[in-house]
Amino acid sequence: MESGAGKHWTEEEVKALLSVWSEKNIRKQLHGTLRNKGIFIYIAKRLQELGVCRDWKQCRAKYKNLKYEYRTVKYAHNSGDVTKTMKFFHDLDAILRYEPVTQIAAEENGRCSATETQLNTSPTTDNTQ
After folding, report:
1. I need a labelling partner for 33 at 20 to 30 A (CA). Which of 27, 48, 99, 100 fits?
2. 1 in a domain, yes or no?
3. Which Pfam family is one of those matched by this entry (predicted)?
4. Residues of the chain above pLDDT 70, percent
5. pTM of the entire predicted model
6. How many CB atoms lie within 10 A of CB 60?
7. What is the C-alpha separation between 111 and 104, in angstroms, rounded?
């Protein structure tokens, strides 16, 4: 499955990316890591083993785009707009559901502090791979 720079990702390629992304050790490494080139080089190698020829920059760009689209749809759903959808929403929801999000909270003295909270925490445990 050859794919060059700038080519659209096929459904199979996205599914392969999601399967690698869903692994617990990958999710842990991606969360909160700003300099993540090494992680995406590893992801690109893993995808190559699955027959997906994408470089680390393409993997990172697709990761960021999927995450942005997911958050846009999630925000719309939380605002009552259930008409907004995306193809891999449920897969991404399973991956991103327990990811901590930094929220800015105003303190009494006017300063702001960052706190971490979990999105959609539920009594079930995270046992995805």
Report:
1. 48
2. no
3. Myb_DNA-bind_4
4. 71
5. 0.67
6. 19
7. 10
For residue 67, being part of any structural domain is answered with: yes
- Overall domain count for the chain: 1
In sign, the C-alpha dihedral spanning 57, 60, 63, 65 is negative
Six token digits for residue 76: 């719309």
In a domain, 118, yes or no: no
Q: What is the pLDDT of residue 69?
A: 93
Q: Domain for residue 127, yes or no? A: no
Q: Which two tokens stand for residue 56?
A: 């680390």
8 A C-beta contact, residue 109 and residue 90: no
Domain that holds residue 65: 11-97
Rounded CA gap, 101 and 70, in Å?
14
